[in-house]
Amino acid sequence: MDAFSNLMMGFSVALLPQHLMLAFVGSLLGTLIGVLPGIGPAAGTAMLIPLTFSMGPTGAIILLTALFYGTQYGGTITSVLLNVPGEAASAITCLDGYAMAKQGRAGVALSMAAIGSFIGGTFAALCLVLAAGPLTRLALQFGPVEFFTLVLLGISLLMGLAGKSMIKALMMGVFGLLLAMIGMDPVRGLPRFTFGTMELMDGISFVPVIMGLFGVGEILLNAEKPFAQMVLAKMSTLIPNRQEMRDSLGPVVRGSLIGTLLGLVPGMTNSASSFLSYIAEKKSSNYPERFGTGMLAGVVGPETANNAHANGALIPLFTLGIPASPTVAIIMGAFMMHGLIPGPLLFKDHPGIAWGVIASFYIGNVMLVILNLPLIGIWVKLLKIPYGILSAIILSFTVLGAYSINNSVFDVLVMTLFGVIGYLLRKMDFPLAPAVLTLILGPMMESSLRTSLEMSQGSFGIFLESPVAVVFLVLTAVILIAPSFSFFRKKKQSLAAGEEDLL
Amino acid sequence: MQRVQRAAAVCFIALSGYVCIAAIGMEYYTKLGPGPGFFPFWLGSIMGGLSIVWLIQLFRQSEKSNEGRFLPEKKGVIQIVLILAALAATAVMSVIGFQLTMFLFMVFLLRVLGRSSVWTTLSIALVCSVGVFHLFGRYLDVQLPASSLSMLAALGL
To answer: Does any CB of chain B come closer than 8 Å to the CB of residue A2?
Structure first.
């Protein structure tokens, strides 16, 4: 079957009433999580995994992916109306979005951002449809040798791009791998680092760890000082005029391309996509000096890019089985909890699920654009809820989520412990994304390494026998060594500094 | 800040030392290839190496480059400790049940930390405890724990 026929088959799955309902609920919850401060997409997605246990795998993944890209829409609302980004990727939108709101053009900023997000997300989903066939065929040729080097490449990309310090990113990557070592050895089934505790025999579940690091850690950070009173800008008409539509065309096209391409790169955050899109708009504008004073392109470009990025980041997960960001890694974990392995075999063994979920991206993006514009008033009202109440509700759901994974209080305590660890690590500027990615990829990485070495009777030369593995290893080496050269270091530092200034 | 970071680097070194020692106790290599201790040993070694490099970097940085308090003001510390205590206290869930635990948890957070009114506190606490218990049990097929104490269980808690 060609891509189009597969997609049509996917639509026949995604358009089932229960799947439409789950895409709707996921979009709604995603927008809510994007709007609310103190809870990001990673913790939000992890928190809702237990809710999916009673669902079929297709419905569960449709819900979680809709939630993931829904957060990108929600983040825009707070950036424009409050000058507070709901999530990091929308931080740059504050610059021109809030300025537009002060000029009485908040409605236009939000509606054009939603339309741009819809086009960006749909474009990336189309790329996934087109890329699925060729990439899947390529990945089906991979054995443990190629898979190990591919995972190594994915992790090295994340290290090179995560935060200011390479050492800290590497430390977090290894920390995640060490956590993944707890429990049964994946090859011989011997217990490791379990301290004789039954609860650790199956290893540490990634859900409480992520909810601790991202959810509880964030609330502890916010508890340090009183949360600032939010001042809402006034809403205005949502309907853009013809000139505004015309002005948005270029930013939407550029944002879609930038977001989709960067989404493919593991470790590239969607705030980097937004930031690069903003720079691209400023450089291509006839009035670069007006950026920051309410330029529509400064809102539409980055918002299109971050939504294209969210959908684009799912391409390596679906085709190669490699997550490109922490939230995508959580979705990968959800796949595994439902007995599915994302990657090329998913298309071969479960085409209905793979194409059904991909088709749901189109439906979810349509729902989001329809949902967001009329419901902006409701989202704004939610923001008036005091942070003390919001944080208590978020904490109660983290407890619920952690407990429901294994029906065990032990997981709640694990989450609390990782809340403290996440709080301390954030205070010391450690990037948490590498730890999450390696925690989930760790067992697969170890299995493929050990299987490869068993095949070669212990000789590391096996990694040099496969041309694909050699290419991946060379790329890994380049990525890890490149920051040592001043040119790349300066480029990376300027990008990081730019992002930080904006955050 | 510098002192805390140095202490953290030492903690990471200690962790890596423990991992390496524990890994040596496992089988490092078998006839077939790497054993259960192989991967942890190398991870522990890499973590140790990285932590030492970080510690050296910290010593080479000037004190001023990282100045500033690590811990927040006293009020902030109290808030953090109370949140953590509340989270840890939910461990009694298996004894007194989800509903009562979550009700008390929410009342504590909303009244003490959120300074919400009595009615707001009670209504939110009831929804998040009794409401969630029935919603999850009946509609989402996620069974939350009931009390193991017969007296509370008889009350439906």
So the answer is: no
